Amino acid sequence: MALREDQILRYSRQILLREVGGRGQESLLAGTARLDGIGASGLTAAAYLAGGGTPVSGAGSLTLGPWAPGFLMGPSDVGLPVTEALAREVPALNPDAGAVGQGLALIHI
Hints:
By secondary structure, the protein is mainly alpha-helical. 41% of the residues lie in helices and 10% in strands.
């Protein structure tokens, strides 16, 4: 997968890192992550993954509690299923992270 010009601009700071580079960024964009369990730390991880271009989905039938508003979610998201809230908020944060497929990385938080 070759990076488009807009992606090169968006991820230029990561691409410049020797540890990531262009190939690493392509891998981030090609992968997916599924959060198993959610909380403030899980939403923070989801936001950072999505910011890097990795699609993120929720697992199970968990709902967002009163702790959810903050870094990624707003007050209107409280009570929503995690999968629904992530499906709406992740693409809004980064359109490259919008297409969530089968989770390759399972993150326990």
